[in-house]
Write a structure and sequence with these properties.
The complex is a heterodimer of chains A (about 350) and B (about 300).
Chain A lengths: L18 E5 L2 E5 L4 H19 L6 H20 L3 H8 L7 H8 E6 L12 E8 L2 E8 L5 H6 L7 H17 L3 E7 L6 H5 L2 H12 L6 E10 H8 L3 E5 L3 E3 L3 H9 L5 H8 L3 H6 L5 E3 L10 H20 L5 H11 L8
Parallel strand pairs in A: 5-6, 6-7, 7-8, 7-9, 8-10
Antiparallel strand pairs in A: 1-2, 3-4, 4-5
Chain B lengths: L2 H13 L10 E3 L6 E3 H6 L15 H8 L5 E3 L18 H12 L5 E8 L2 E8 L10 H17 L3 E7 L7 H5 L1 H14 L4 E9 L1 H4 L8 E4 L10 H8 L10 H6 L5 E2 L2 H15 L16
Parallel strand pairs in B: 5-6, 6-7, 7-8, 8-9
Antiparallel strand pairs in B: 1-2, 3-4, 4-5
Helix pairs in contact in B: 5-7
Classes of the chains: A alpha/beta (about 350), B alpha/beta (about 300).
Chain lengths: ~350, ~300
């Protein structure tokens, strides 16, 4: 059956191969299903490079035609992403990560470290910050953006210290009446020896419990991957929003495929069956909002995606501000009632 | 083989159909290999008489041994939506459910009961590992919520026996949502000031360990039970090294401060009675006065 933790990860994930093309000087990472797009954009770029070398050549018309073709294809590709493609987009290395959101949407971010028991966990960022001038506590998983920082942040896979740090920060927020905003982006909790010895399960259980206890608003946004118990520990909020192409699941499609299909290559079927897309989760009543992403996903226009998340958080904060003492009972009722209607919800 | 066996055997087999011969008169202990006679084994609460290995025990057998005189009343559990995701892997989920119901002879993976232990009225819930690996889906969530609600209503403690391979994958995100859901149930008990005792049995893993099974006021485990979040295989694949002997077993967790006690199944009942009565500030149970369990 499903273990809450993530399966083994390496920098390049199984099932996702990247081809690199260049666009306007910066490197763009294409997903496997975006290959035809990479070809067209590559051609347009080559044409323009040629023209730069040879001034007499006029290729602009052809290049513009290719651009248009690429734009049409992009729209077509992203119009109806199947669940497995959504998984790939949700895990795209160029998507804005927790750190980017904190920089873009918060001011005076003051990281607070450590669980006061054992260590600080770099897979979990958190601290005090201002959101539109309102002081809040922000907590999130950070995956890292290059090899070095990914290793440093353990690919966003938290150890017990990460959850215990979050518990401490939620307590702080509760004591001083600050709303809590959590940003979810993790393949799952880290399946390591030390993590188990130090009580991974207990840390997650207590973190979920803390989410259900605090008397301040708790807003969770799944910005990439909501991986199982590692995600629930922070995502048990009053309101849970998901980016359009993010995922939230009890197990990774690869893990599910290898258990139920006895074949890790059946991840497409597993992704389909698990109903892990934001759209399905809204139907199931597990999440409250979907935040639209820019065309081609958050990785193509990080600023627009982050701005959209920002305005959603602002809306939700306003909505919750008036609740006062009703918050905790309402939050508990919400989770008690969850799933009662299945897909008919 | 000679002509006699070739000729005679089919006839004899056809005379005794398989069902008439009890199949599991003998059980082989998976730990030490000793052949154990079924009556002896069940009298010993499915603990190997030779090596003390604790084998799986069904909720009904567990309750029969736990409650005074083996008497308990089942607490009704509201039915969830069957197959909420219309899940299909190599088989349809409803077909898997039906097969599990037939094999286990139970409706789902958890049984809730109301009864007395040492004349202390309690609510007990037990997870059934023989039913789809005891996995936690909507039904198990409903069972825990029902158990907590009843405990709060009658002002009784809750004793929960956990055993699970983790979340019920066929219920996808809704199985994951049982983590917060069951946590709310535990909070109801906490806030009502009622004891919540968890007995972790072999194996308790995944999202079950990471929610209600780790939130007890007192955490007891049966000897050698595997208790973990990520299973040993997943960890070995991740860190690419062999795990130490006894890793993630009850005694290992006790050494690492994750449990209060490791207790032999045959001593559990007395221990539960004693702990509950102290937490409820009731006088010590008079041992001679206690009705014996059904066996």
């Amino acid at each position: 059956m499903a273990f809450g933790a993530a399966p083994t990860r390496c920098i390049c994930r199984p099932g996702v191969s990247y081809s690199r093309g260049s666009q306007a000087g910066c490197t763009m990472t294409y997903l496997e299903f975006e290959k035809p797009l990479a070809e067209i954009e590559g051609k347009a770029e080559e044409l323009r490079a040629l023209a730069r070398k040879n001034e007499a050549m006029d290729v602009e018309k052809e290049a513009v035609a290719l651009d248009k073709k690429a734009a049409d294809l992009l729209r077509e590709l992203y119009k109806s992403l199947d669940p497995w493609r959504k998984c790939q987009v949700a895990r795209h290395p160029d998507r804005p990560h927790c750190k980017d959101y904190i920089e873009a949407l918060f001011t005076e971010y003051t990281p607070l470290a450590g669980d006061r028991n054992f260590a600080d966990d770099p897979a979990v960022m958190g601290g005090l910050a201002r959101f539109n001038d309102t002081p809040v506590v922000v907590i999130g998983h950070e995956k890292g953006h290059d090899t070095k920082s990914r290793i440093e942040h353990n690919f966003g896979m938290a150890r017990p210290e990460g959850y215990r740090k979050a518990i401490r920060l939620m307590d702080l927020a509760d004591r001083f009446g600050l709303p809590v905003i959590t940003l979810i982006d993790t393949p799952g909790a880290y399946p390591g020896k030390g993590a188990e010895e130090r009580g991974q399960a207990e840390a997650i259980a207590r973190s979920t419990q803390k989410c259900l206890e605090i008397k301040v608003p708790l807003i969770s946004v799944v910005i990439g991957e909501g991986g199982s118990g590692g995600a629930v520990a922070f995502a048990t909020g009053d309101r849970v929003a998901m980016l359009e192409h993010s995922i939230y699941s009890v197990i990774s499609p690869e893990g599910c495929a290898s258990i139920l299909w006895k074949d890790a290559e059946k991840m497409r079927e597993a992704a389909e069956a698990l109903r892990l897309t934001a759209q399905d989760l809204l139907k199931l009543g597990v999440i409250d909002r979907i935040i639209a992403e820019p065309l081609g996903g958050a990785q193509r226009n990080a600023n627009a995606a982050m701005a959209a998340v920002g305005s959603e958080i602002a809306l939700l904060l306003d909505e919750l501000r008036e609740k006062g003492p009703d918050l905790v009972p309402e939050r508990r009722r919400k989770y008690l009632a969850m799933g009662a209607k299945g897909l008919a919800a | 083989m000679n002509w006699i066996s070739n000729y005679v055997r089919p006839k004899i087999n056809s005379l005794f159909s398989r069902r008439e011969v009890p199949e599991n008169l003998w059980t082989k202990c998976p730990e030490c290999g000793t052949m154990l006679f079924h009556r002896e084994l069940s009298e010993n609460l499915n603990v190997c008489t030779s090596c003390e290995h604790h084998m799986a025990i069904t909720p009904r057998e567990r309750f029969a041994a736990l409650f005074d005189g083996g008497v308990f009343v089942e607490v009704p559990v509201p039915d969830p939506v069957i197959d909420p995701l219309a899940f299909r892997d190599q088989k349809k989920y409803p077909d898997r459910l039906k097969a599990a119901q037939k094999a286990a002879g139970e409706k789902e993976a958890m049984l809730v009961a109301d009864g007395e232990v040492g004349r202390t009225p309690i609510i007990a819930a037990a997870q059934d590992f023989s039913f789809m690996a005891g996995s936690m889906g909507m039904y198990v969530g409903n069972a825990i919520v029902a158990a907590a609600e009843r405990a709060v209503m009658l002002r009784r403690p809750l004793v929960l026996f956990a055993a699970a391979g983790g979340a019920r994958m066929q219920e996808g995100i809704l199985s994951l949502m049982q983590m917060p859901r069951t946590t709310v149930a535990v909070q109801m008990l906490n806030e009502a000031g009622l004891p919540y005792i968890v007995v972790l049995t072999h194996p308790t893993t995944g999202g079950v360990t990471a929610s209600y099974a780790m939130l007890g006021d007192v955490q007891i485990a049966e000897p050698n039970a595997l208790i973990c979040f990520a299973g040993p295989r997943v960890i070995e694949q991740t860190i690419r090294e062999k795990l130490p002997e006894g890793f993630q077993r009850a005694e290992y967790l006790l050494d690492h401060g994750m449990l209060d006690r490791v207790t032999h199944r045959k001593k559990l009942r007395d221990e539960i009675i004693s702990i509950l009565r102290m937490l409820m500030r009731q006088p010590q149970a008079i041992v001679a006065d206690l009705p014996a369990p059904s066996r």
